[in-house]
Amino acid sequence: MAAEAVLVHDIAPPHPRYTQLTQMAADVARRTQGRLTIAINPGGEVLYPGQASLDAVRSGRVPLTFVNSAFLQSVDPDLGFLNLPFTITDELMARPGVAQGVLGLVRSYVEPRGLKALAMMRGADTLFIFRNRQVRAPDDLRGLKIRVAGPGVYQDIVRSLGAQPVIFPAIEMGAALARGAMDGIITSPGGWGKNVQEAPRGSLVPGLLFYTYFLIADKAWFDARPAAGQSALAEAARATVTDAWGEMQADDARLVAELVARGASQSVVQADALAPWRARTEGVTRAFAAAHPEVMRRFRSVVGAE
Q1: 199 neighbors 225 (Cβ within 8 angstroms)
Q2: pLDDT average, residue stretch 239-254
Q3: Whole-prediction pTM value?
Q4: 52 and 19: one domain?
Q5: Phi/psi zone of residue 157: left (φ > 0), alpha (ψ -120 to 50 degrees), beta?
Q6: One domain for residues 27 and 92
Q7: Closest by alpha carbon to 54, among 212, 238, 213?
């Protein structure tokens, strides 16, 4: 019998990551010959932004979500390793087997909590966006209110730079900036594209705060699928999401180039100027590693650092 699975998320079109969602849904339908279909945000509305999407899966209201890894810390605080500064990078994830290894590590933490991690998505090497300032050094952020996507390590990073983190879902951040609830926003190139008129100045500090998203399923729901459906969903997620990291990196570079061509401005902190940023944020990583030594040991093993 045919089945439809609802997938909730807060990656609204025309964000470039939305392409991966639709490609995955199409691939699942193709692999199952229509016996399993995925309904992405039915009605076209973001009903469960951020933490709410993960809560909807954990409560059994929906079977699937793509969720920013900041919110996985509510499942297990050890998963904050995903969000540490200068930890997840494009260079690291380009190495064979690393993405699957990190996904397997996350899976080992969420499965005992009744969840299944099926894919790891490149969210973005995020940007600071402002109305009228560029960021070149950590002190440029001192005293500012900066939007972050979620709680935990993201907040710690912003505090280490002398700024005040404020949490807003992506669907609310443009209006919040307009009314003065924040001075600037940390977001993806896709998020910048939706808010570029209000915040035309972007600044990239490569690797400082890297977004990842995970496809999380209700494990009981997944385990109840026929074997063919389980395989189709897992393989479609791997092929169109986890293995498409480089494609998503190129999409973001293309989008930023388009925004700059239309009049936005972007500054990029070059590799030889990252030392002050690393120095200011190294306490975040040190404190996390002291509190969560086992997951850091396992992560280093996955990436071949020990």
Answers
A1: no
A2: 98
A3: 0.96
A4: yes
A5: alpha
A6: yes
A7: 213
